């Protein structure tokens, strides 16, 4: 069961979208330079469809996207939730994963970010980053990492 620690409305994590970002706990990746080690624990509220509806209703009309932050320990559940959001809540779906592992059905997602956080490589804003941010377009991944970087 996916659980979440907290949530927030964010503007920069997904370009062109106002996103309800939900921080999933029980992260199995244990990146050595993680800034959010509290998310390693299996704590928080269960993120059921009902709970997701409750959160979305708080911001309905203000958000365009739901951003699932983490969930690599329960990839199948992330995919089930993405399918639900896409087909029942009429919102776009983004997933920030700490791995490099495509979902089974990328068509249930609009945006995907892959890769662990490594301090010597930096996050998406760093030109040397190991992380990748993609837009899903016509069932294919289109690299949009450059949109986080100054030129
Ligand atoms: S994936 Fe994110 S939350 Fe998980 S260990 Fe890495 S940086 Fe921390």
C-alpha-based Rg, rounded = 15 Å
Q: How would you state the average pLDDT, rounded?
A: 96
Can you count the helices? 2
The CATH homologous superfamily is named Aldolase class I
Shape: globular
How helix-rich are the residues, as a percent range? Answer: 10-25%
Element order: H for helix, E for strand: EEEHEHEEEE
- Total domains, how many? 1
The number of E-state strands comes to: 8
Distance between the termini: 41 Å
Largest sheet: spatial strand order: 3-1-2-4-5-6-7-8
This entry's quaternary arrangement is single chain
Bound molecules: iron/sulfur cluster
**Might you state the CATH topology name?**
TIM Barrel
Comma- or semicolon-separated keywords:
eight-stranded mixed beta sheet; alpha/beta; binds iron/sulfur cluster; 151 residues; TIM Barrel; 26% strand
Describe the model.
The protein is an alpha/beta fold. The chain has 2 helices and 8 strands, in the order βββαβαββββ. The protein is globular and about 40 Å long. The model has no long low-confidence stretch (mean pLDDT 96). The structure holds iron/sulfur cluster. Iron/sulfur cluster binds next to loops.
Question: What's the arrangement of secondary structure elements?
Answer:
Layout: E1 3-10, E2 19-24, E3 45-46, H1 49-59, E4 65-69, H2 75-89, E5 92-96, E6 111-114, E7 132-137, E8 140-143
Parallel strand pairs: 2-4, 4-5, 5-6
Antiparallel strand pairs: 1-2, 1-3, 6-7, 7-8
The structure holds iron/sulfur cluster.
């Amino acid at each position: 069961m996916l659980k979440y620690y907290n949530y927030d409305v964010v503007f920069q994590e997904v370009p062109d979208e106002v996103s309800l970002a939900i921080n999933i706990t029980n992260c199995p990746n244990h990146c050595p330079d993680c800034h959010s080690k509290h998310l390693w624990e299996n704590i928080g509220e269960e993120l059921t469809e009902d709970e997701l509806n409750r959160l979305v209703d708080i911001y309905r009309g203000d958000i365009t996207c739901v951003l699932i932050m983490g969930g690599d320990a329960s990839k199948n559940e992330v995919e089930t939730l993405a399918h639900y959001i896409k087909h029942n809540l009429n919102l776009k779906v983004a997933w920030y994963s700490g791995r490099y592992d495509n979902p089974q059905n990328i068509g249930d997602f609009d945006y995907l970010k892959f890769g662990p956080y490594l301090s010597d490589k930096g996050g998406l804003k760093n030109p040397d980053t190991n992380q990748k941010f993609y837009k899903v377009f016509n069932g294919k991944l289109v690299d949009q990492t450059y949109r986080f970087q100054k030129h």
